[in-house]
Protein backbone atom coordinates (compact mmCIF):
# COMPACT_ATOMS: atom_id res chain seq x y z
CA UNK A 1 0.00 0.00 0.00
CA UNK A 2 1.02 3.65 -0.33
CA UNK A 3 1.49 5.83 2.72
CA UNK A 4 2.98 9.16 3.72
CA UNK A 5 5.92 8.33 5.98
CA UNK A 6 7.81 10.22 8.65
CA UNK A 7 11.18 8.64 9.47
CA UNK A 8 12.63 11.53 11.47
CA UNK A 9 11.15 14.64 13.04
CA UNK A 10 10.75 16.97 10.07
CA UNK A 11 8.42 19.52 8.46
CA UNK A 12 5.49 18.00 6.58
CA UNK A 13 6.93 19.39 3.32
CA UNK A 14 9.78 16.86 3.59
CA UNK A 15 7.60 13.78 4.06
CA UNK A 16 7.53 11.28 1.18
CA UNK A 17 4.86 9.01 -0.24
CA UNK A 18 6.19 5.46 -0.05
CA UNK A 19 5.18 1.90 -0.87
CA UNK A 20 5.01 0.00 2.43
CA UNK A 21 3.63 -3.37 3.58
CA UNK A 22 0.03 -3.46 4.76
CA UNK A 23 -0.09 -3.31 8.56
CA UNK A 24 -0.73 -6.68 10.23
CA UNK A 25 -4.11 -7.19 11.88
CA UNK A 26 -3.64 -7.59 15.62
CA UNK A 27 -5.87 -9.23 18.20
CA UNK A 28 -9.10 -7.30 18.67
CA UNK A 29 -8.45 -4.97 15.74
CA UNK A 30 -10.20 -4.04 12.49
CA UNK A 31 -8.76 -3.22 9.07
CA UNK A 32 -10.18 -0.29 7.11
CA UNK A 33 -9.64 0.50 3.45
CA UNK A 34 -9.30 4.26 3.72
CA UNK A 35 -11.29 6.36 1.24
CA UNK A 36 -10.77 9.77 2.86
CA UNK A 37 -8.48 11.04 5.62
CA UNK A 38 -8.54 14.39 7.38
CA UNK A 39 -5.59 16.75 7.59
CA UNK A 40 -5.14 19.28 10.38
CA UNK A 41 -2.86 21.80 12.06
CA UNK A 42 -1.89 19.15 14.60
CA UNK A 43 -0.13 17.19 11.84
CA UNK A 44 2.44 19.97 11.56
CA UNK A 45 3.29 19.53 15.23
CA UNK A 46 3.28 15.72 15.12
CA UNK A 47 5.77 15.40 12.26
CA UNK A 48 8.20 17.82 13.94
CA UNK A 49 7.95 16.08 17.31
CA UNK A 50 6.28 19.07 19.01
CA UNK A 51 2.92 17.46 19.74
CA UNK A 52 2.09 16.05 23.17
CA UNK A 53 1.93 12.56 21.66
CA UNK A 54 5.02 11.37 19.80
CA UNK A 55 4.45 8.28 17.62
CA UNK A 56 7.23 5.71 17.31
CA UNK A 57 9.11 6.32 14.07
CA UNK A 58 8.73 5.60 11.25
CA UNK A 59 5.02 6.35 11.14
CA UNK A 60 2.30 7.79 8.97
CA UNK A 61 0.50 10.86 10.35
CA UNK A 62 -3.27 11.22 10.30
CA UNK A 63 -5.81 10.52 13.03
CA UNK A 64 -9.21 10.64 11.27
CA UNK A 65 -10.38 8.42 8.43
CA UNK A 66 -13.47 7.16 6.66
CA UNK A 67 -13.69 4.03 4.56
CA UNK A 68 -14.85 0.43 4.43
CA UNK A 69 -14.06 -2.37 6.86
CA UNK A 70 -12.23 -5.18 5.05
CA UNK A 71 -11.19 -7.45 7.94
CA UNK A 72 -12.01 -7.93 11.61
CA UNK A 73 -10.24 -9.99 14.25
CA UNK A 74 -12.13 -12.73 16.12
CA UNK A 75 -14.38 -11.35 18.83
CA UNK A 76 -14.89 -7.89 17.31
CA UNK A 77 -18.58 -6.95 17.51
CA UNK A 78 -18.70 -3.19 16.93
CA UNK A 79 -18.43 -3.42 13.13
CA UNK A 80 -18.38 -6.06 10.40
CA UNK A 81 -16.68 -6.56 7.03
CA UNK A 82 -18.32 -4.33 4.44
CA UNK A 83 -19.45 -1.63 6.88
CA UNK A 84 -18.94 1.99 5.86
CA UNK A 85 -17.26 3.62 8.85
CA UNK A 86 -15.53 6.66 10.24
CA UNK A 87 -12.79 6.27 12.82
CA UNK A 88 -10.49 8.22 15.07
CA UNK A 89 -7.11 6.52 15.36
CA UNK A 90 -3.79 7.09 17.10
CA UNK A 91 -1.85 7.76 13.87
CA UNK A 92 -1.40 6.16 10.45
CA UNK A 93 -4.39 7.67 8.65
CA UNK A 94 -2.51 9.14 5.71
CA UNK A 95 -2.28 5.74 4.07
CA UNK A 96 -4.42 3.43 1.96
CA UNK A 97 -5.14 1.06 4.87
CA UNK A 98 -5.24 1.30 8.64
CA UNK A 99 -5.68 -1.19 11.45
CA UNK A 100 -7.11 0.11 14.69
CA UNK A 101 -9.05 -0.58 17.86
CA UNK A 102 -12.80 -0.86 17.08
CA UNK A 103 -13.66 1.12 20.22
CA UNK A 104 -13.32 4.30 18.15
CA UNK A 105 -14.71 2.99 14.84
CA UNK A 106 -18.30 3.97 14.05
CA UNK A 107 -20.65 2.55 11.43
CA UNK A 108 -22.07 5.31 9.25
CA UNK A 109 -25.69 5.76 8.20
CA UNK A 110 -26.11 5.12 4.48
CA UNK A 111 -27.01 8.76 3.94
CA UNK A 112 -23.64 10.11 5.17
CA UNK A 113 -21.05 10.46 2.39
CA UNK A 114 -17.60 9.11 3.17
CA UNK A 115 -16.04 12.36 1.96
CA UNK A 116 -17.43 14.35 4.91
CA UNK A 117 -17.17 11.59 7.51
CA UNK A 118 -13.54 11.77 8.77
CA UNK A 119 -14.36 14.82 10.91
CA UNK A 120 -17.38 13.30 12.64
CA UNK A 121 -15.65 11.44 15.50
CA UNK A 122 -12.98 14.15 15.84
CA UNK A 123 -14.07 17.74 15.10
CA UNK A 124 -17.76 17.08 15.67
CA UNK A 125 -16.95 14.79 18.57
CA UNK A 126 -14.86 17.51 20.19
CA UNK A 127 -17.53 20.18 19.74
CA UNK A 128 -20.43 18.01 20.90
CA UNK A 129 -18.77 16.68 24.03
CA UNK A 130 -17.33 20.08 24.99
CA UNK A 131 -20.68 21.84 24.64
CA UNK A 132 -22.78 19.05 26.16
CA UNK A 133 -20.61 17.29 28.72
CA UNK A 134 -18.41 20.19 29.88
CA UNK A 135 -20.26 23.48 29.37
CA UNK A 136 -23.78 22.02 29.70
CA UNK A 137 -25.10 24.32 26.98
CA UNK A 138 -28.84 24.91 27.43
CA UNK A 139 -31.60 25.81 24.95
CA UNK A 140 -32.03 29.56 24.77
CA UNK A 141 -28.48 30.38 25.84
CA UNK A 142 -26.12 32.44 23.68
CA UNK A 143 -23.05 30.67 22.31
CA UNK A 144 -20.04 32.56 20.93
CA UNK A 145 -17.85 30.47 18.60
CA UNK A 146 -14.38 31.60 17.53
CA UNK A 147 -12.73 30.26 14.39
CA UNK A 148 -16.22 29.46 13.21
CA UNK A 149 -15.34 28.35 9.68
CA UNK A 150 -12.70 25.80 10.65
CA UNK A 151 -13.56 22.15 11.11
CA UNK A 152 -14.17 22.22 14.86
CA UNK A 153 -15.58 25.77 14.85
CA UNK A 154 -18.13 25.10 12.12
CA UNK A 155 -19.12 21.92 13.94
CA UNK A 156 -19.68 23.98 17.10
CA UNK A 157 -21.88 26.44 15.18
CA UNK A 158 -24.08 23.63 13.86
CA UNK A 159 -24.20 21.75 17.13
CA UNK A 160 -24.99 24.88 19.12
CA UNK A 161 -28.01 25.49 16.90
CA UNK A 162 -29.07 21.84 17.16
CA UNK A 163 -28.91 22.16 20.95
CA UNK A 164 -31.20 25.20 20.86
CA UNK A 165 -28.70 27.99 21.43
CA UNK A 166 -28.45 31.37 19.74
CA UNK A 167 -25.05 31.37 18.00
CA UNK A 168 -22.65 34.25 17.33
CA UNK A 169 -19.73 33.30 15.08
CA UNK A 170 -16.37 35.00 14.62
CA UNK A 171 -14.09 34.41 11.64
CA UNK A 172 -11.35 36.24 9.76
CA UNK A 173 -12.89 36.82 6.30
CA UNK A 174 -16.24 37.68 4.77
CA UNK A 175 -16.28 34.33 2.99
CA UNK A 176 -15.86 32.46 6.27
CA UNK A 177 -18.51 34.57 7.98
CA UNK A 178 -20.91 33.74 5.15
CA UNK A 179 -20.17 30.04 5.63
CA UNK A 180 -20.90 30.30 9.36
CA UNK A 181 -24.23 32.00 8.61
CA UNK A 182 -25.06 29.35 6.03
CA UNK A 183 -24.54 26.70 8.70
CA UNK A 184 -26.82 28.36 11.24
CA UNK A 185 -25.04 31.27 12.93
CA UNK A 186 -27.50 33.96 13.98
CA UNK A 187 -24.82 36.66 13.88
CA UNK A 188 -21.35 36.78 12.34
CA UNK A 189 -18.52 39.05 13.48
CA UNK A 190 -15.24 39.77 11.72
CA UNK A 191 -12.27 39.03 13.97
CA UNK A 192 -9.58 40.24 14.22
CA UNK A 193 -11.07 43.73 13.92
CA UNK A 194 -11.31 46.85 16.05
CA UNK A 195 -15.10 46.60 16.11
CA UNK A 196 -15.44 42.94 17.07
CA UNK A 197 -16.40 43.52 20.71
CA UNK A 198 -18.90 46.21 19.76
CA UNK A 199 -20.49 43.88 17.21
CA UNK A 200 -20.72 40.99 19.70
CA UNK A 201 -22.31 43.25 22.32
CA UNK A 202 -24.81 44.49 19.75
CA UNK A 203 -25.80 40.88 19.05
CA UNK A 204 -25.74 39.85 22.73
CA UNK A 205 -26.10 42.85 25.05
CA UNK A 206 -25.82 40.67 28.16
CA UNK A 207 -22.87 38.74 26.81
CA UNK A 208 -22.37 35.14 25.73
CA UNK A 209 -23.37 32.41 28.17
CA UNK A 210 -20.86 30.01 26.63
CA UNK A 211 -17.75 30.75 24.55
CA UNK A 212 -16.22 28.01 22.39
CA UNK A 213 -12.59 28.93 21.76
CA UNK A 214 -10.27 26.77 19.62
CA UNK A 215 -8.18 29.86 18.74
CA UNK A 216 -6.79 31.25 21.99
CA UNK A 217 -4.52 34.26 22.26
CA UNK A 218 -6.30 37.47 21.32
CA UNK A 219 -9.57 35.59 20.81
CA UNK A 220 -9.52 34.55 24.46
CA UNK A 221 -8.88 38.13 25.53
CA UNK A 222 -11.95 39.14 23.52
CA UNK A 223 -13.92 36.34 25.17
CA UNK A 224 -13.24 37.71 28.65
CA UNK A 225 -14.86 40.99 27.58
CA UNK A 226 -17.74 39.36 25.72
CA UNK A 227 -18.72 36.61 28.15
CA UNK A 228 -21.80 37.10 30.32
CA UNK A 229 -21.79 37.28 34.10
CA UNK A 230 -21.64 33.68 35.26
CA UNK A 231 -20.64 32.52 31.79
CA UNK A 232 -18.40 29.62 30.75
CA UNK A 233 -15.42 29.81 28.40
CA UNK A 234 -14.39 26.52 26.79
CA UNK A 235 -10.65 26.35 26.07
CA UNK A 236 -10.39 23.96 23.11
CA UNK A 237 -7.06 24.85 21.49
CA UNK A 238 -4.55 27.48 20.47
CA UNK A 239 -4.74 27.87 16.70
CA UNK A 240 -3.56 31.47 17.06
CA UNK A 241 -0.14 30.08 17.89
CA UNK A 242 0.31 31.49 21.39
CA UNK A 243 -1.18 30.52 24.72
CA UNK A 244 -2.94 33.21 26.71
CA UNK A 245 -2.37 33.95 30.38
CA UNK A 246 -5.71 34.08 32.21
CA UNK A 247 -6.27 37.01 34.61
CA UNK A 248 -7.95 35.39 37.60
CA UNK A 249 -9.33 38.73 38.83
CA UNK A 250 -11.64 38.95 35.80
CA UNK A 251 -12.88 35.42 36.39
CA UNK A 252 -13.66 36.43 39.96
CA UNK A 253 -15.37 39.75 39.20
CA UNK A 254 -17.56 38.28 36.45
CA UNK A 255 -18.15 34.89 38.10
CA UNK A 256 -16.74 33.30 34.94
CA UNK A 257 -15.57 29.70 34.56
CA UNK A 258 -12.62 29.07 32.23
CA UNK A 259 -13.00 25.39 31.37
CA UNK A 260 -10.26 23.36 29.74
CA UNK A 261 -11.49 20.47 27.62
CA UNK A 262 -9.31 17.66 26.27
CA UNK A 263 -11.42 15.39 24.05
CA UNK A 264 -8.39 13.14 23.61
CA UNK A 265 -8.97 11.72 27.07
CA UNK A 266 -12.13 10.00 25.85
CA UNK A 267 -10.68 8.47 22.67
CA UNK A 268 -7.45 7.01 23.99
CA UNK A 269 -5.11 9.98 23.65
CA UNK A 270 -4.75 10.80 27.35
CA UNK A 271 -1.88 9.98 29.68
CA UNK A 272 -3.69 6.66 30.22
CA UNK A 273 -5.67 4.99 27.42
CA UNK A 274 -9.29 5.23 28.59
CA UNK A 275 -11.06 4.71 25.25
CA UNK A 276 -12.79 1.50 26.35
CA UNK A 277 -14.05 3.10 29.55
CA UNK A 278 -15.58 6.01 27.63
CA UNK A 279 -16.68 4.07 24.54
CA UNK A 280 -20.39 3.90 25.48
CA UNK A 281 -20.63 7.66 26.06
CA UNK A 282 -18.73 8.51 22.87
CA UNK A 283 -20.89 6.09 20.85
CA UNK A 284 -24.02 7.70 22.26
CA UNK A 285 -22.72 11.13 21.23
CA UNK A 286 -22.00 9.91 17.68
CA UNK A 287 -25.43 8.26 17.49
CA UNK A 288 -27.06 11.58 18.39
CA UNK A 289 -25.06 13.40 15.74
CA UNK A 290 -25.82 10.77 13.09
CA UNK A 291 -29.51 11.24 13.85
CA UNK A 292 -29.20 15.01 13.58
CA UNK A 293 -27.46 14.64 10.21
CA UNK A 294 -30.33 12.51 8.93
CA UNK A 295 -32.79 15.11 10.27
CA UNK A 296 -30.96 17.88 8.42
CA UNK A 297 -29.77 19.66 11.57
CA UNK A 298 -26.08 19.07 10.79
CA UNK A 299 -24.39 19.46 7.40
CA UNK A 300 -20.72 18.46 7.67
CA UNK A 301 -18.66 20.21 5.01
CA UNK A 302 -15.50 19.25 3.15
CA UNK A 303 -14.26 22.29 1.25
CA UNK A 304 -11.10 20.78 -0.26
CA UNK A 305 -10.22 17.29 -1.48
CA UNK A 306 -6.69 16.41 -2.53
CA UNK A 307 -5.43 13.09 -3.90
CA UNK A 308 -2.94 11.29 -1.69
CA UNK A 309 -0.19 12.23 -4.14
CA UNK A 310 -0.86 15.92 -3.37
CA UNK A 311 -0.31 15.52 0.36
CA UNK A 312 1.86 18.63 0.66
CA UNK A 313 -0.72 20.75 -1.16
CA UNK A 314 -3.40 19.52 1.24
CA UNK A 315 -1.28 20.50 4.22
CA UNK A 316 -0.50 23.86 2.62
CA UNK A 317 -4.25 24.52 2.31
CA UNK A 318 -4.67 23.89 6.04
CA UNK A 319 -1.65 25.97 7.01
CA UNK A 320 -2.86 28.94 4.94
CA UNK A 321 -6.36 28.60 6.43
CA UNK A 322 -8.05 28.06 3.08
CA UNK A 323 -10.39 25.39 4.38
CA UNK A 324 -14.01 25.90 5.33
CA UNK A 325 -15.04 22.87 7.31
CA UNK A 326 -12.62 20.02 6.64
CA UNK A 327 -9.73 19.49 4.22
CA UNK A 328 -9.29 15.82 3.30
CA UNK A 329 -7.04 13.47 1.37
CA UNK A 330 -8.83 11.31 -1.20
CA UNK A 331 -7.42 7.81 -1.50
CA UNK A 332 -7.47 5.66 -4.65
CA UNK A 333 -10.16 3.46 -3.09
CA UNK A 334 -12.56 6.42 -3.27
CA UNK A 335 -12.14 6.53 -7.05
CA UNK A 336 -12.35 2.78 -7.63
What does this structure look like?
- With 336 residues, the protein is of the alpha/beta class.
- It has 2 domains: 2-112 and 300-335, Medium-chain alcohol dehydrogenases, catalytic domain (Quinone Oxidoreductase, Chain A, domain 1, Alpha-Beta Complex), CATH 3.90.180.10; 136-261, Rossmann fold, CATH 3.40.50.720.
- The protein is built from 10 helices and 15 strands.
- The chain has helices at residues 41-47, 120-134, 151-162, 174-182, 196-203, 218-226, 248-254, 275-294, 311-319, 332-335; strands at 2-5, 16-19, 30-38, 64-72, 84-88, 97-100, 105-107, 142-145, 166-171, 187-190, 208-213, 227-235, 257-260, 302-307, 326-330.
- The strands form 3 sheets. Strands 3, 4, 5, 6, 7, 14 and 15 form a 7-stranded mixed sheet that branches. A 6-stranded parallel sheet has the order 10-9-8-11-12-13, sandwiched between helices.
- Strand 9, helix 4 (174-182) and strand 10 (187-190) form a beta-alpha-beta unit.
- It starts with a strand and ends with a helix.
Structure characteristics:
Quinone Oxidoreductase, Chain A, domain 1; 2 domains; 15 strands; alpha/beta; 336 residues; 6-stranded parallel sheet; Rossmann fold
**SSE order:** EEEHEEEEHEHEHEHEHEHEHEHEH
What is the count of DSSP helices, taking H or I runs of 4+ residues?
10
User: What percent of the residues sit in helical stretches (DSSP H or I)?
Assistant: 25-40%
Rg (CA only): 20 Å
- The name of the CATH superfamily of the largest domain reads Medium-chain alcohol dehydrogenases, catalytic domain
How many strand units? 15
Low-confidence sequence ranges: none
How much is the average pLDDT? 96
What is the CATH C-level name of the largest domain? Answer: Alpha Beta
Number of domains: 2
User: Could you say which structural class the secondary elements and strand pairing correspond to?
Assistant: alpha/beta
- Strand count, sense and closure of the main sheet? 7 strands, mixed
CATH topology of the largest domain: Quinone Oxidoreductase, Chain A, domain 1
Architecture of the largest domain, CATH level 2? Alpha-Beta Complex
Give the overall form: globular
Termini separation: 15 Å
Binned strand content: 15-25%
Amino acid sequence: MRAVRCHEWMPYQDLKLEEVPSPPLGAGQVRIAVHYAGVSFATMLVTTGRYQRRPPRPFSPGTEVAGVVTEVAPGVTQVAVGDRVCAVIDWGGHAEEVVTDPATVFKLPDSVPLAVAPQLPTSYGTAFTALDWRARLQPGETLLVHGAAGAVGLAAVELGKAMGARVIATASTAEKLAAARAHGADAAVLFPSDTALEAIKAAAPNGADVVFDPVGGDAFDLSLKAVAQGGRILIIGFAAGHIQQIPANILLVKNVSAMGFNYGRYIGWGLVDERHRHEPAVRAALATMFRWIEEGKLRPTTSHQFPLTDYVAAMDAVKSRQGIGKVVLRMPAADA
